[in-house]
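Progress narrative, work stream C.
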Amino acid sequence: MAAVLLTNFPSRLQNVYSGNENLGTTMRLSRIHSGPVLDFYTPDFTTELKLPLAGTAISAGFPSPAEEYIELAIDLNKELIKHPAATFYARVKGSSMIDAGIADGDLLIIDKALEPKDGDIAVCFIDGEFTLKRLALKEDGIYLMPANAEFKPIRITEENDFLVWGMLAYIVHKPK
């Protein structure tokens, strides 16, 4: 298995928060599968990934009065990963989920311990291929729903080799 370092995220923060020694930590990933739709990685939880965190909430509506800035630390491994043994990363290839805010190149955090529910976004294995789609449980069966009008829903039949492999827990992407 090839080892991959996620260095873009921490290095961008180093440029913004220069001088913080905690930012030199990188998260190591090991590639476990590469396919036409998703590349899968398993995270290494042996290192902490503590990053600076503003002590107050950032307003997305009306600006709030200035408050004293208190720097805290957040460990993204602990914040984003609830089931370490069942959590994987995947990098998106394609645009079938663009209207759900998932774009080509986005990093997904997938939790295999979460139960699939109607309307959830899941990584599914169908007929030898992985795909990322929204689950639709209807009276006539299970549908895998894209979030892009250019793609058609996939109806799961008895002839399909089908498995809900894991549930989407978080999406990491760059703002436009």
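Work stream C, second folded protein:
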Amino acid sequence: MRAPTPLKVQIEEANRQIRILISQLDAAVNRIKQRDAAIFRQVVNSLGQRDAQHAIVYANELSEVRRMGKMVTQAELALEQISLRLGTMTDLGEIATTLAPAVSVIRNMKSTLEGVLPEADREIGEISGLLSSVLIDAGTSSGISLNFDAANEEAQKVLNEASEVAEERMKESFPAIPLTLRTQQDAEELST
């Protein structure tokens, strides 16, 4: 039987996998930005041609692309926070209080991203499994009991913070949908 892998090595491996996933998410965000720009041009062109029906169709698609962009950006930011926390842990007590919320965030992220970015699903599952294993090993070797209610509260804080930053980045990165179209779109939604 093989000797168990030291916790430090497991944490470093998890952090390496998280950094790889962050790179993949960053590439996905860039693809989404390109798609956003292309669809936005179609909205503007349709409005320029006074083709409100096509402009609305494109604007709806643009809205969906931006929703996906926000979800991917949120996941990327949450993973960056987890990676930073993993890099600064020094003792077993810290491992338990840091990893419990991290595992919760990653599990939440997995369910959110599986429909948007299926290629990230396997990596997220591996990271979640590795961090769960480290958490169990840390609890077993130190006798620390885990407070999952506190961990879930901390996880929610991480997700909320990532959501706020993602919202800001989206506002900075993506142009606003033309006001004339938004007003017309809002009027149509009210009439249905």
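The helical segments are 7-48, 52-88, 92-113, 121-142, 148-173, 179-191. No further action is required on this item.
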